[in-house]
Design brief:
Elements: E1 2-8, H1 28-33, E2 38-44, H2 50-59, H3 79-85, E3 89-94, E4 111-114, H4 121-134, H5 139-159, H6 164-174, E5 179-185, H7 196-201, H8 211-220, H9 227-254, E6 259-265, E7 270-271, E8 277-278, H10 285-288, E9 289-290, E10 292-295, E11 306-312, H11 316-324, H12 338-341, E12 351-355, E13 371-375, E14 379-383, E15 389-393, E16 404-405, H13 413-425, H14 438-446
Length: 451
Amino acid sequence: MKTLLITIDAWRASHASFAPDAAEAYTPALASFAEDGTVFTQAVSHGPATPYAFPALFSSTLPLDHGGYERISPDRTLVSERLQAAGWSCVGVHGNPWLGAKYGYGRGYDFYEDVGEFGLPLFDDTREFLIDRFGLDHPVYRAAQTLYRHAQTPLQRIRGGPDEIDVAVRALETGADDRFVWTHLLTPHAPYTPPKRHREAMGVPELSTSPTALVTRAQHDPGVLSSREREAVKRLYAASVRHADERLRPLLNAVDDETLVVVTADHGEALFEHGQLGHEPCLYDELIRVPLLIRPPADATVGARTVDRQVQHIDVAPTILDYAGLSPPGTFAGRSLRPAIEGDGLDDRLAISEVASTAATPGQINESAVQIGVRSPERKLLLDADGGRYGFDLRDDPGEERPSREPSGAEWRSFEAALDARLDAIDLSGAVAAERDADVERRLQDLGYLD
């Protein structure tokens, strides 16, 4: 058996066409593929951005366990390590600067590659000059950055470097049984620059500026956009999701019937909810609810096409190991979702999401910035960085617009207990800071994480 794990960056649960309440054909290829699998309608990420979410996906531990998320401590056993120890070959490919092997993510892989932007020395020197001379938001710099992005694609082809989809397709087609392939697609992450055909399909209005300039302005100051500009940004995001779906089509076509396929997002994306565009550190549902699709091998039982029980990212790695016939390490905190896929149901469990970083210092541990969310499909309890506690009734207030300060009553007791237990369990005394080189800093800046 082979296993394919596809993760898609910044993909909202609302923009998965295989969801029962999907409004538009955002992901037609994935919707077709989902007909043979199980869709989980209440899947939760444990963090609101890539560095906070992936420790849970790969190691079935919460982001602030084992010294936090700046580096993946050897104390966390990755699903790739468990598979490799059992004789599997593992291939990992991504284009996200947060996921470098130097941060611990490459353990257990026979092949692990970052296929993100590569350096163009002359362009890089020019870029730094323009930043110093004009600043990030100046039209001159934005025009130069657009040229830089357009130049990279043909130069990448000349150099012969494959993208993440190419690598994953070859890994599936050439590998023997007992192969694990993970690919992370950076699209639809900001700055939302989909091809024209997808802009037209998703009804993006004509713009007086470039998509990159508009989205960058929205990230920095969303309140200044007109209603038309805000709608244009939302349509650009939808078109970017459709582009991601198109990019995945060759990979989905390469999957044989004997392959376990898991498709999810690392986190969601705010589209002007709660005053932001993107995914700065907060724990509202637009950021932590994610799509999740699991298609088992053909000889495995599929008894439920849709599961409405709440599940979590910490459940993904145990599920992969279950189908591989392997026991989970003792460090894993999640559970296999195979019983739910086979129609046996799941018990209710509260989901924890957390972060300890600020918008100004993304990905860096700050003990004074801890936020925790305890969620069920019906309600959520949030602890903010100032120690305030807020409750939301997700049935009557799904947009989380009417917080209840210090909620009380029998229905909140389990949430309070879970929040207190999590606070007691967090120990960041052993956190190790991760140094980021100039190339990583530049790439994070281009993605909107850094000013």
